[in-house]
């Protein structure tokens, strides 16, 4: 039976809401939502943190043009609104996109959402975007439709979005102050003219805010993405969070700037840095006071396919899709059964968890005040610890304390072990992984080799393979309780105090 572990103030949900575990909806957080909203988010991997462990999304790259310029974007690369830098492998026509969606849906039963997120701005390519949505509404009615935009032409497109039953819209809003905007957007293209600097930023901001209000007035769920750019808008994003919340946005996703010189972006070339893990988490925590925060975003490519954090795009290139024989009626039935099975499993877990609610404090006899601890978790999905340390492409990061276990983000790492040929590089890659896990005191995985075990221990990170196949939050809570029992956390706290005093 699954053990549901809660903290001392777990019934104090008013304080936390989504922010209690830091994200746009774990199971408990969805329960306070009205039914019609819960229906929209419960299997959307971006709008629900829990759903991202179980359901997949895909993007189709049908929208090449853009009507603004962001300093973090190079047209050659995916739209940074919803992506990480990386060329789109194939630009698709709407007909090709529809074929691809149906092929993916037939082969990945967890796929619930189709998003259009670039490589330019979907609403700057309205014919291609809406042709794709129109065809999919008819041919694949079981798939949720989602779109992401910079917002410039959003107010003009709201009616069309409603017509196609688009229930989820993301707007990238990096500022509500044109002076800040002028540092992010060199120009916009508006009424057939290029408008530069503050004037252009002001128009963009007005359009974004107007579009946001129009959507929420119509009951469409809006997620706001913001790119955190240290020294440019980092101090300003709390204000953005307040403003968009007031206008009814459902979720705020503060993402780190990705800027490398080799991407050829203005920020990359100028050496503008992105935020550190701590800076990002601090800002997300500050914004969480006002808003539901998304912390599990993977800054996907505009042609991403699969669960968040995995990319199965190579399995569905157009040459492969063209020769796939898809019986969508049959596939739709299979998908419905598969997804019902996942839902039933989650429901069963929730009710058994409700019966066995155990406060975190009950897991430890340690009564002294203990400090919070960061732990890294290796998982390949399903909400359980089920991945070998050496096979993890990313680690989920959880913060455990005596009052809570909360998901706070993920960190991408290079593969430690990818087979014999790369063994010569193993040490370097392992060291890199350890650097990325900075701040974490334990790593939970299904298995781990002897060598990385030793190196992790030497680096002050305790490897733990004892909780394979257990639900993540339960396992994290148990490991925390063990650390508290062994007085490890208290001793460390005293050492920290001594050091601070020295
Ligand atoms: Fe795609 Fe975006 Fe829809 Fe999700 S992604 S259009 S809302 S279906 Fe999700 Fe990817 Fe983050 Fe976007 S993890 S980049 S938030
Ligand atoms: Fe690039 Fe997207 Fe910005 Fe357009 S909106 S410039 S495609 S990041």
What topology emerges from the helices and strands here?
Layout: E1 5-6, H1 13-16, H2 27-30, H3 35-41, E2 56-59, E3 68-69, H4 94-107, E4 111-116, H5 126-139, E5 144-149, H6 154-163, E6 168-172, H7 178-181, E7 187-190, E8 193-196, H8 197-217, E9 221-228, H9 237-246, E10 251-256, H10 266-270, H11 277-288, E11 305-306, H12 318-322, H13 328-355, E12 358-359, E13 373-377, E14 394-400, E15 405-412, H14 426-436, E16 440-444, H15 450-458, E17 462-464, H16 472-485, H17 488-501
Helix pairs in contact: 4-5, 4-13, 6-8, 9-11
The structure holds FE(8)-S(7) cluster and iron/sulfur cluster.
Tell me what the structure shows.
This protein has 502 residues and is α/β, with parallel strands linked by helices. It has helices at residues 13-16, 27-30, 35-41, 94-107, 126-139, 154-163, 178-181, 197-217, 237-246, 266-270, 277-288, 318-322, 328-355, 426-436, 450-458, 472-485, 488-501; strands at residues 5-6, 56-59, 68-69, 111-116, 144-149, 168-172, 187-190, 193-196, 221-228, 251-256, 305-306, 358-359, 373-377, 394-400, 405-412, 440-444, 462-464. It is globular, with a radius of gyration of 23 Å. The chain is built from 17 helices and 17 strands. It has a 7-stranded mixed beta sheet with strand order 10-9-6-5-4-2-11. Bound molecules: FE(8)-S(7) cluster (CLF) and iron/sulfur cluster (SF4). FE(8)-S(7) cluster is lined by residues 46, 57, 59, 82, 113, 115, 117, 146, 148, 168, 170, 223, 253, 297-300, 308.
- For the report, how would you describe the main beta sheet? 7 strands, mixed
Distance between the termini: 48 Å
Number of strands: 17
Rg, alpha carbons: 23 Å
Give the helix/strand class: alpha/beta
- Helical fraction equals 25-40%
